[in-house]
């Protein structure tokens, strides 16, 4: 007999399947041997002298497999910055491993190569740009006098501060030579088609990978306010010379550039909901755009679960609550974990003994990329008995939460969810099951 734990894992796998990058690309692209169709727009390939594929991100290699499978020898070449350990069956597009989430010299070298390809493109060339989650960190092109070491330190500080991905990318755009529409600016007057696999809340193309091919509505003043808000210091010379404005809507650089969002968290959550209903659960999607401090979001989910347990509201049992998006963790401790592991730990603590024997709750939270923070886990899965099992091992859940050490809390309980890198990234999936 399947258990709620098995069901939660099955629902998460359905979300992953819907976020498959190759499937996402092929749902939006087709080729009849002469004309490339992207969405509803047609591109007769006879009008191009060369087709190059460039980009970056956790899913970009799999996206490239789909593009190369369609266009084959029509592709002149290509170059992608990808995470370590990623591989793909490619003949014409080069994969260049680099660091994530902290940018490294390999990423900077790859970003320089990508910029060279863009700048060399002419009016009869087509650039297909593949962008997915992680692209911001994998396209480090710091504007002088900002150095890579300075960019690394800035990234570390913003990651630990609790800044949202939107805030982080606003800062990155104005200290970069490639983000915030500057890749499209470098490629003009070539034709640019950007395929975006969204890992951000709201699917704003200007935030996905820091929007290298789309107009930027943020300003240097916005970036400065964010740095001041989180008390992230920047040397005076960097602030004066490196912070610069990006191309805005209406800039001629975008006249021959378009973008298509090929996949997002919404699609993953919709597939998870369909799976949950098939398993017999009354299902409610709370939101696919949840942001905020992880612990507060966990308490909100726990409150809803408690109401279902006590009164079968807002939905009756057996119930499945789903949500997506990307929360943030303000790191104050010295432990190891990620936002998904911390969500599960905070949620089971918020539920505590409030269930009063009325029924169990199973909680899963995981990143669709298979990576949660600086760990080898995608997230965690726990239930109503987890706190009791932890206590029997002498594990104080509150102490681990205070130290941001969810990984070492769940590890001895065999409650970490380890998928390995999934090759996709459409933010997080959270599943609460109440039989």
Describe the overall structure:
With 435 residues, the protein is of the alpha/beta class. It has two domains: 4-12 and 266-434, MOFRL domain (glycerate kinase, domain 1); 32-263, 3-Layer(aba) Sandwich (Rossmann fold), CATH 3.40.50.10180. It contains 16 helices and 15 strands. It has helices spanning 4-18, 21-26, 60-71, 105-120, 135-138, 148-161, 165-173, 182-187, 220-229, 236-241, 265-278, 294-311, 339-351, 386-392, 397-402, 406-410; strands at residues 29-31, 35-38, 41-44, 50-56, 77-83, 94-98, 125-131, 191-197, 257-263, 282-290, 319-325, 362-367, 379-383, 416-417, 428-434. The strands form three sheets. It has a six-stranded parallel β-sheet. It has a six-stranded mixed β-sheet with strand order 10-11-15-12-13-14, sandwiched between helices. A hairpin with a 2-residue loop joins strand 2 (35-38) and strand 3 (41-44). Helix 1 runs antiparallel to helix 11, helix 7 crosses helix 9 and helix 12 packs parallel to helix 13. The protein is globular.
Topology:
Blueprint: H1 4-18, H2 21-26, E1 29-31, E2 35-38, E3 41-44, E4 50-56, H3 60-71, E5 77-83, E6 94-98, H4 105-120, E7 125-131, H5 135-138, H6 148-161, H7 165-173, H8 182-187, E8 191-197, H9 220-229, H10 236-241, E9 257-263, H11 265-278, E10 282-290, H12 294-311, E11 319-325, H13 339-351, E12 362-367, E13 379-383, H14 386-392, H15 397-402, H16 406-410, E14 416-417, E15 428-434
Parallel strand pairs: 4-5, 4-7, 5-6, 7-8, 8-9, 10-11
Antiparallel strand pairs: 1-2, 2-3, 11-15, 12-13, 12-15, 13-14
Helix pairs in contact: 1-11, 7-9, 12-13
